């Protein structure tokens, strides 16, 4: 009885039953009314806070955790001119890149299997990928704190493999490992969605011409999945650059990233103007990355043709 | 489409081997926390040296943690209820053919997803402090509604787009009013999406920690925030037990609703 819940891509375009209706004046009113509750929620409780924070980023910080209204660029200038903060920005970007690459490499085989698997395995694999997403990042980070401890499972594993024990907590190494696991589900789901669109007949035709699995991967799967690779990598990169809970818990006080700087400035130093400026620098970074990826993707598509 | 079973090759075995390791990697931290929560000793050791339920008893006896659990449940339920209704209304507007600003509206509605949690958190901290609502239930509720609304909109409008509106138009042409047609025709057919959106919203609110961390007060601490504060300085099996309760709860909610609705078809 219920209609299809998910658009069925292989069935082609679903035809709409009725033709176009003549536009009647006043027809927009019902739609505006339906959007009103959302506007009433988002404007005062989301856009207004962001606007006020933007204003605060130009305020002057007064010692003692207060600020006075002003229109100065000191806070932004402080971030840009101080090598300490610039290095934190660089560290954050490098960490994000490392997490994205690691997540890509680990997620790809699983995404491929998920895209090509039959219903029995598909359900189980989907659940396995979704369970981390349904679990609070705090719980997963706690699990990593246990695993990466000096006498924890990770180091025991290294010892078993005859590798030297390493410090994995309170540094970037552990943070990168934990963040990779935390963000992998996003990569797997993005990649799997794209790979699913690749026609399996293409793989079969390469095999029937005598190609090995490697040829199938190199000549069919990899090129056609590149949009998914780009989208998934960007998503994971952006999420890890903005990450707070995991770097704070695993990285500790000495591992500084953009998000932890904002937190410390806002709650410990109580320098809200500076924290606000750092926040907007982070937003600008995220937006810039998204736009850049859009351009790169368009250029790549043009080049492929 | 039936495919002939391929012979078992080294390549396939290697693929499955890698997948098994990756799946283990994905689930490792959660499994570790769950197992550690049954530890008999007073300190956190993995693997635990003995098994016991004592930390669950400690959890139930801890007024702080129990209050936090109740707050998380109340907050989640309230935010979900409001966000689902508001999101459903907005989705109806967004998927209407005649709404020309739909693209922009959709972008605005889902913008909370693009703002980093830390940024939203500090913005709301500043805002609610100025307005005098710092550390109140209202501020938490408003923040959570804003954070889960995009998910509701995305899921419900996706369900609406897959739904053939001509059935509703047929009901209207037979004389049903707009609201009646919606309640008796459209709503029952999209209830799967609406339910999925509600579950997603609840879980997102229940697990939310970064923004909530900024808005929490000493008596308004949700469970994830209390866990966060606790593990910054302590590490004992109590918080492992609390975390396990959090995990089991969310997984149970999803599995139960999956039985009823069938999520795996959504992905």
Compile the SSE list and pairings.
The complex is a heterodimer of chains A (305) and B (267).
Chain A: H1 28-56, E1 60-62, E2 66-68, H2 74-81, H3 83-116, H4 119-134, H5 137-147, H6 153-160, H7 172-196, H8 200-208, H9 213-241, H10 245-251, H11 258-267, H12 272-304
Antiparallel strand pairs in A: 1-2
Helix pairs in contact in A: 2-3, 2-12, 3-4, 3-7, 3-9, 4-7, 5-7, 5-10, 7-9, 7-10, 8-9, 9-12, 11-12
Chain B: H1 10-36, H2 54-61, H3 63-94, H4 102-109, H5 111-114, H6 117-131, H7 137-161, H8 166-173, H9 178-207, H10 210-215, H11 223-233, H12 237-261
The radius of gyration of chain A is: 24 Å
Sequence of strands across the biggest β-sheet of chain A: 1-2
Counting DSSP H or I runs of 4 or more residues, the number of helices of chain B is: 12
SS class of chain B:
mainly alpha
Strand content of chain A: under 5%
Per CATH, the class of chain A reads Mainly Alpha
Shape of chain B: globular
Q: From the alpha-carbon coordinates, what is the Rg of chain B to the nearest angstrom? A: 23 Å
Estimate nothing, just give the exact number of structural domains of chain B. 1
CATH architecture of chain B: Orthogonal Bundle
Topology order of chain B in helix (H) and strand (E) letters: HHHHHHHHHHHH
Write a concise synopsis of the structure shown:
The complex is a heterodimer of chains A (305) and B (267). Chain A has 305 residues and is an all-alpha fold. Chain A contains twelve helices and two strands, in the order αββααααααααααα.
Question: How is this structure best described in words?
Answer:
The complex is a heterodimer of chains A (305) and B (267). Chain A has 305 residues and is mainly α. Chain A contains twelve helices and two strands. Helix content of chain A is 72%, strand content 2%. In chain A, a hairpin with a 3-residue loop joins strand 1 and strand 2. The relative contact order of chain A is 0.12. With 267 residues, chain B is mainly α. In chain B, 75% of the residues lie in helices and 0% in strands. Chain B is built from twelve helices and no strands. The longest helix of chain B is centred in the first third of the chain and has 32 residues. Chain B is globular and about 70 Å long.
């Amino acid at each position: 009885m219920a209609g299809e819940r998910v658009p069925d891509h292989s069935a082609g375009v679903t035809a709409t039953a009725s033709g176009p209706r003549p536009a009647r004046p006043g027809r927009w009113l019902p739609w505006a009314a339906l959007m009103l509750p959302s506007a009433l929620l988002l404007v005062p409780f989301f856009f207004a806070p962001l606007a006020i924070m933007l204003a605060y980023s130009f305020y002057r910080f007064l010692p003692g955790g207060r600020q006075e209204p002003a229109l100065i660029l000191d806070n932004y200038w402080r971030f840009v001119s101080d090598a300490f903060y610039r290095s934190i920005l660089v560290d954050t970007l490098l960490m994000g890149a490392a997490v994205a690459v690691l997540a890509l490499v680990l997620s790809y085989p699983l995404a491929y299997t998920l895209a090509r698997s039959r219903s029995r395995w598909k359900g189980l694999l989907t659940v396995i990928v979704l369970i981390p997403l349904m679990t609070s990042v705090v719980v997963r980070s706690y699990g990593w704190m246990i695993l990466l401890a000096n006498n924890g499972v990770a180091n025991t594993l290294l010892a078993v493999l005859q590798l030297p024990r390493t410090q994995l907590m309170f540094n970037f190494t552990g943070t990168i490992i934990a963040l990779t696991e935390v963000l992998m589900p996003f990569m797997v789901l993005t990649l799997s969605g794209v790979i699913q669109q690749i026609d399996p007949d293409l793989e079969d035709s390469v095999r029937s011409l005598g190609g090995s699995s490697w040829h199938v991967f190199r000549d069919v799967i990899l090129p056609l999945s590149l949009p998914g690779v780009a989208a998934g990598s960007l998503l994971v990169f952006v999420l890890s650059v903005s990450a707070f809970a995991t770097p704070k818990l695993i990285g500790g006080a000495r591992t500084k990233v953009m998000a932890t700087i904002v937190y410390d400035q806002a709650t410990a130093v109580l320098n809200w103007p500076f924290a606000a400026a750092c926040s907007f620098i982070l937003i600008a970074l995220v937006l810039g990355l998204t736009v850049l990826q859009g351009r790169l993707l368009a250029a790549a598509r043009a080049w492929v043709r | 489409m039936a495919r002939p079973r391929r012979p078992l090759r080294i390549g396939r075995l290697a693929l499955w081997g890698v997948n098994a390791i990756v799946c283990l990697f994905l689930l490792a931290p959660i499994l570790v926390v769950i197992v550690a929560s049954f530890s008999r000793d007073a300190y956190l050791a993995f693997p635990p040296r003995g098994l016991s339920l004592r930390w669950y008893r400690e959890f139930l006896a801890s007024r702080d943690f129990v209050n936090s659990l109740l707050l998380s449940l109340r907050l989640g339920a309230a935010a979900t209820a409001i966000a689902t209704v508001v999101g459903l209304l907005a989705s109806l507007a967004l998927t209407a053919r005649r709404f020309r600003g739909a693209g922009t509206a959709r972008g605005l509605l889902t913008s909370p997803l693009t703002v980093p949690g830390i940024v939203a958190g500090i913005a709301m901290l500043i805002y609610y402090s100025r307005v005098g609502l710092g550390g109140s239930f209202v501020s938490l509720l408003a923040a959570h509604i804003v954070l889960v609304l995009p998910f509701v909109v995305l899921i419900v409008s996706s369900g609406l787009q897959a739904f053939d509106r001509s059935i509703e138009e047929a009901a209207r042409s037979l004389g049903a009013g707009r609201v009646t047609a919606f309640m008796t025709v459209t709503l029952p057919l999209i209830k799967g999406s609406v339910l999925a959106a509600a579950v997603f919203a609840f879980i997102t609110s229940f697990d939310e920690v970064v923004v909530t961390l900024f808005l929490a007060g000493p008596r308004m601490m949700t469970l994830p925030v209390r866990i966060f504060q606790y593990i910054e300085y302590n590490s004992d099996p109590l918080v492992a037990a609390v975390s396990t309760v959090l995990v089991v709860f969310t997984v149970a909610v999803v599995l139960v609703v999956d039985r009823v609705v069938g999520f795996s078809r959504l992905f």
